[in-house]
Amino acid sequence: MGKWLLRGAIALLAVGAAGAAWVFGFLPRTHPPAPVRVAATPEVIERGRYLAINVLQCVDCHSVRDWTKYGGPPVAPIGAGRPCMDRKTPTAGVNVNQEYFPGVLCIRNITPDRATGIGEWSDGEIIRAVREGIGRDGRGLFPIMPYFIYRHLSDEDVQAVVAYLRTLPAADSGITPERQIEFPLNLLVRLWPEPLEAPVVAPDRAKDRLAYGEYLARIARCEFCHTPREPNAMEGFEGRRFAGGMPFHLGKERVMYPMNLTPHASGLGGWTREQFVARFRAHATPQTVTPAENTLMNWNAFSGMTDDDLDLLWDFFMTLPPVPYRQEPL
Ligand code: HEC
Ligand code: HEC
User: Which of 17, 87, 181, 183 has the fewest CB atoms within 10 Å, i.e. is most exposed?
Assistant: First the structure.
């Protein structure tokens, strides 16, 4: 999709003033936030905690991380945001095809702090930001925030996340810079957001376990990181879903390749279910490592996934067509 949007943006520019007026006048496509009020029972909050920390990685992205430890676990105050990216931030590994970030972008505070966090946001505004990529002020969010994935989150699950966020200790992040995004990405943040027109329901985990495994593999972003794609594209290559991701860079020293998760010999074909589960469980207490040994896969967070969720993921991966792994872009 990303590739087509980029081409679309370029085509619009060729059309000139009329195209620009459309992009800046009518986009992003959006609608008012839904007037929902989340019923925050202890069970709902616990479900939201599990999703936000162990499955969806909200907390990892929206916190400062300790990169002396394997997988970079988040540091308290969790959810309070992290230092902004700017024109000096190298973007290797980020889905931006430039050496340094073209502007200023902050991963902000999602604790209930009133000044710098979501304290003043309605439930509907938070849900719209998470699934549809629209900020409180109506602007389109930059798609490092994976709203194009979270649009598949069920109404029930996204509401649970909101209930949990409201229980986080409010912390003032001190993050204030305004976002600045240079051309052409400033057009893309207007083109990308897409409103949801219907309720979203997750597959029934008791009746259709494979479909639920696929739901998990999507919302936990296994699919996004473990599928090859063109730089800047949001969707992977046709027929190669889960067949191993594009290179990830951690600093200059470390390049890593997300594994092929299909049952091919170059992927999970040689693994057992027990090995798969054990690989996740190994990082509940992350070891101290050097930058050259570290990883961008959120192992510490995922180590808390339930046995049943890891089983569902494994069962789903085993149904994929076995596709060989190729490290190079196709
Ligand atoms: C891969 C990193 C990443 C993950 C994972 C992530 N976010 Fe974000 N989030 C961002 C970035 C980057 C922005 C800023 C986008 C912008 O300002 O254009 C953002 C913005 C937001 C905003 C809007 C904040 C504001 O002040 O405008 C909210 C709310 C939010 N995220 C909540 C969440 C929740 C809830 C989750 C989990 C369901 C989550 N995020 C997961 C990166 C992430
Ligand atoms: C942010 C990107 C990202 C996400 C999200 C992600 N992975 Fe990974 N994954 C990686 C990278 C990078 C590697 C290679 C480095 C490593 O092994 O840690 C990897 C490696 C792996 C490995 C191989 C480990 C080994 O011992 O060789 C498995 C298995 C795996 N991921 C499964 C998953 C599953 C299942 C999910 C979803 C629950 C997932 N990953 C989500 C980036 C990601």
Answer: 17
What is the band of 18 on the pLDDT scale with cuts at 50, 70, 90?
low
Cβ–Cβ under 8 Å, residues 223 and 160? no
Per mean pLDDT, which range of 3-17, 259-273, 298-312 is the poorest?
A: 3-17
Question: pLDDT at position 210, please?
Answer: 98
Residue nearest to atom 1 of ligand 2 (CA): 297
- Say how many Å lie between the CA of residue 129 and the centre of ligand 1: 8
Between the CA of 62 and the centroid of ligand 1 the distance, in Å, is 7
For 175-186, what is the mean pLDDT? 84
Ligand 2 pocket: which of 225, 257, 303, 315 to mutate (most atoms <8 Å of CB)?
Answer: 225
Burial zone of 110 (CB within 10 Å; 0-12 exposed, 13-18 middle, 19+ buried): buried
The ligand with the least distance to the CA atom of 305 is 2
Cα-atom radius of gyration of the chain, to the nearest Å?
A: 20
CA distance 91 to 209: 38
Distance (Å) from CA 59 to ligand 1 centroid: 10
List, for residues 223-270, the tens digit of each pLDDT value: 999 999 887 777 888 889 999 998 888 877 788 999 999 999 999 999
